[in-house]
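COMPLEX REQUEST
Ligand: EPU
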Amino acid sequence: MEKIVIVGGNRLVGDVNISGAKNAAVAIIPAAILAQDICRIENIPNISDVNMMIRILHQMGAEVKMINKNTYEIDTRNIVSHIIPNELTKHLRASYYLIGALLGRFHKACVAMPGGCDFGVRPIDQHIKGFELLGASVSIEENAMVDVTAERLTGCPVYLDVVSVGATANIMLAAVKAKGLTVIEQAAKELHIVDLANFLNLMGADVRGAGTDVIKIRGVEKLHGCTYSIIPDQIEAGTFMVAAAATGGDVLIKNVIPKHLESITAKLVECGVVVEDGDDCVRVVAKGRLTRCNLKTMPHPGFPTDMQPQMTVLLAGADGTSIISEGVWDNRFRYVEQLARMGASIKVDGKIAVVEGVEQLKGAPIKAGDLRAGAAMVIAGLCAKGTTEIENIDHIDRGYEDVVEKFAALGADIKRVNTPEPESMAEVG
Ligand code: EPU
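STATUS: Structure written out below.
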């Protein structure tokens, strides 16, 4: 068991390089199944969710060559099985993309229900609706395997009832080789939807409109291999921006697309932070106490829900009362009880949190409840007076490459320590 130990109070100063986008990588890697060829994918973040997806492809029969820690060549010609066992997929939300990709290639898929962070109910009804409209029949078996088969896939209009990132991408994957035109209405506009569409098009697909709420996919017979570089991670960049701001720091955040960070920049500026855009970097400078703001998370281009916990930490130490509304997930404030242990004053009522800024957070032993909550706990530890010990850090490693090393290089007093397993566990082995 490992934990992260932080002695708070250091301003973050210096440069940090942002890795490739997790949520693009976990869609693009399974999309390579559709190519039946070799894809070279660059700027893949070295994080556990991505490594799990690569392992799954390898176990399916793909040849996976690591060129360096962020570049892989994936040859999907020899994949034969459309069945993926539960133990591989149960911790990974993005395993649902294997359904769309296998359906597109083999017209059948049998994949366990996806896992991932727990924010209350996470249905996949819109994915299923899309597959059915394309001509597939879908059943969920007793052992929670999703079984999808289609004699043929035929393009069709799909009107999503909710704006869903996963359903939009999954329907794109299933439709790129279907016969005719698929039109997804009320599509998600997230940056990784555009990145996935660019990757599919480079493989020979005909996907138009990604980044708007209507995506048109004209089916093609065959796709081919390509070389592709994944976009920088908006949320990792945002996490470092907020950490820099919350610690009163001065950090140059490199390898980013500043336009992708506009919604985050706007909120930081509202709190009194100076953000300067460069060509492929942003500099974040904060001095003195930051001020309150209100915040509502929304699908892109709104403020990202995956930045909500990190901003809550910043506002927990800002001057005044902030109101945060969660507009995407039903239950994404569970981490607040950990912040309360650090002296934060936050009241949650359903999807709204009222944050009364306190003078300073205090170090405490806390737990990372999920990926972004874990990132927020790290920021809280960096700002707090005294020592913070964070448990359950495997959640953080799912989505942040070299998180401890990157913060330490900016001057944080942060380290990863091994904790002995409780004796009873050690005996069990
Ligand atoms: N929804 C449905 N039915 C569906 C699908 C979604 O009702 O079939 C609802 C959800 O319950 C939710 C809303 O629609 O209320 C949005 O869900 P969406 O499908 O967009 O989320 P997702 O695809 O499961 C991705 C990211 C999440 C991120 C959300 C929202 C990946 C692998 N995950 O999840 O990222 O929070 O979009 O932007 O891309 C993270 O990176 O930490 C993370 C949780």
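REMARKS: Confidence is low (pLDDT under 50) at residues 425-429. Residues 234-246 form the longest helix (13 residues).
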